[in-house]
Amino acid sequence: MTILCVRFQLPPMYEAALPGLLGLLEEFTPVVEALPPDGALADLRGAERYFGRDAVELASVIRVRTLALHGVDCAIGAGPGPMLARMALRQARPGAVRAVTGEEAVEFLAERPVAELPGVGRATARTLCEYGLETLGRVAAAPLSTLQRLVGAKTGRELHEKANGVDRSRVVPNGISRSLAAERPFPRDELDPARHRRALLSATEELGSRLRAVDKICRTLTLTVRYADRSATTRTRALREPTAHSAALTRAAYEMYEALGLQRARVRAVTLRAEGLAPAEQASHQLTFDPVDEKVRRIEEAADRARARFGPRAVMPGALAA
């Protein structure tokens, strides 16, 4: 076991703490891949040789250090490759390490639902389940030619290999992801457009706050609306100018929502994703003589300071739009 998949127990909207936690992992290995908003992959092959300990022992040390230095607990999955480490993490309790060895891989995968396999989307999982391939064990036993007829040549080959424990993926060192997402599920399928818009407002304020916390701007915004029948609609829009301001993100989100023309749609959840992230110093802001715009920006700065001091719930959703 040489790969760790770590999920830090961060409070919502505290992604700004992730760079410091990644720095802690980089004290053990330079091969660290960020998985925002609260996770990371770490390749410990060199660290095992250097420290004379295996990955599970190093995982325990990492957990103790995150608690001592950052006050953050974590759950950790360990495996011979990124795929198994990610899947092991699903079964790891907070404060514990779930390890899967290469010898255990086939048995571990056999009983897992096909939807748990990284890279398998809902459409692919639904297609496989329609043909009785609900578990990875059944997928592994199915002829390769059958899988390729069902999901395509390339996807079928990759699916067959992964179900048999063959993982060709690698940990790719990177910085913070070039996208951030905020999801707002409804407690029940929601018909009211006003509640849809309220969820969008809450999501854009979260995205704006998180972007500003890590000194980033975004160039595009993607809206995904999931419905009661499990279908979804996705729309992407390039912003007029790269921004991290919640008001601009809210306007874009509302425009995309209105363009969908939903008529009595039963909505299960809405998700907004800010994409094309870049450093905030690269932002260009169109000068304006509108005092309302400047007032909103000052209120936004004050709200960010309040969140930083008192936590993410210090400012109620919609306060900036009031």
What can you see in these coordinates?
- It is a single chain.
- This protein is of the alpha+beta class and about 325 residues long.
- Helix content is about 45%, strand content about 20%.
- The chain has 12 helices and 10 strands.
- It has helices spanning about 20-25, 45-50, 55-70, 80-90, 105-110, 120-130, 135-140, 145-150, 155-165, 195-215, 245-260, 290-310; strands at about 5-10, 30-35, 40-45, 75-80, 95-100, 180-190, 215-225, 230-245, 265-275, 280.
- The chain has a 5-stranded mixed β-sheet with strand order 2-3-1-4-5.
- Helix 4 links the parallel strand 4 (about 75-80) and strand 5.
- Helix 1 crosses helix 3 (about 55-70) and helix 8 (about 145-150) crosses helix 9 (about 155-165).
- The N and C termini lie far apart (about 55 Å).
- The model has no long low-confidence stretch (mean pLDDT about 85).
